[in-house]
């Protein structure tokens, strides 16, 4: 499951106001803000996609680890809740739900954490570089 050296690029195109369309390979989705803060509520907020990215990556990692061990997770769900602290989250809580007993689910958490790209990225605090690529004059 792990790989290195590869990179992914997604492109966000501003559509006006607080709305953008994000393209990721052959897929696209809308990002917006609620009407109460000036958006049109045409899609989830960026922070909701961020939390969704973490929750879905961890769910896939758990499912992968379970499958490797011959364990079925028929009703697995993972929720992510972020606690706002100004313009960032001060903490994020993942909640795993399944009818699998906790004593069988618990041993899957550490291996899933090792292969979840999103939680590993957050744990290592990647550098964020911002550069311009404006039109040449």
Task: Give a short overview.
The chain is of the alpha+beta class and about 140 residues long. The chain is about 30% helix and about 25% strand. It is built from three helices and five strands; from the N terminus they run E-E-E-H-E-E-H-H.
Output the keywords.
137 residues; GMP Synthetase, Chain A, domain 3; 2 domains; three-stranded antiparallel sheet; two-stranded antiparallel ribbon; 3 helices; 32% helix; globular
Structure description:
By secondary structure, this protein is an alpha+beta fold. It is 32% helix and 26% strand. It has helices at residues 46-68, 102-115, 117-123; strands at 11-16, 19-24, 27-31, 77-85, 88-97. The strands form two sheets. The protein has a three-stranded antiparallel β-sheet, with no helix packed on it. A two-stranded antiparallel ribbon has the order 4-5. A hairpin with a 2-residue loop joins strand 4 and strand 5. Helix 1 (46-68) packs across helix 2 (102-115).
Order of helices and strands: EEEHEEHH
Helix content: 25-40%
Number of strands: 5
Note the beta-strand portion: 25-35%
Shape: globular
N-to-C span:
45 Å
Largest sheet: 3 strands, antiparallel
pLDDT averaged residue by residue: 93
Helical/strand content category: alpha+beta
Number of domains: 2
- CATH superfamily of the largest domain, by name, is K homology (KH) domain
CATH architecture of the largest domain: 2-Layer Sandwich
Number of helices: 3
Question: Low-confidence parts, pLDDT < 50 over ≥5 residues?
Answer: none
Would you give the CATH topology of the largest domain? GMP Synthetase, Chain A, domain 3
Query: Taking strands numbered 1, 2, ... along the chain, how are they ordered across the largest sheet?
Result: 1-2-3
Q: For the record, what CATH class of the largest domain applies? A: Alpha Beta
Any idea what the radius of gyration is? 18 Å
């Amino acid at each position: 499951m792990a790989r290195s050296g590869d990179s992914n690029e997604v492109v966000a195109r501003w559509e006006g106001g607080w709305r953008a369309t994000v393209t990721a390979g052959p897929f696209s989705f809308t990002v917006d803000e609620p009407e109460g803060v000036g958006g049109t509520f045409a899609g989830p907020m960026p922070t909701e996609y961020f939390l969704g990215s973490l929750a879905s990556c961890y769910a896939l990692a758990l499912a992968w680890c379970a499958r490797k061990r011959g364990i079925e997770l028929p009703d697995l769900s993972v929720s992510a809740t972020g606690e706002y602290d100004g313009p960032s989250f001060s903490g994020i809580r993942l909640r795993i739900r399944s009818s699998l007993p906790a004593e069988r689910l618990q041993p899957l958490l550490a291996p899933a954490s090792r292969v979840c790209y999103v939680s590993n990225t957050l744990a290592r605090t990647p550098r964020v570089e911002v550069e311009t690529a404006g039109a040449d004059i």
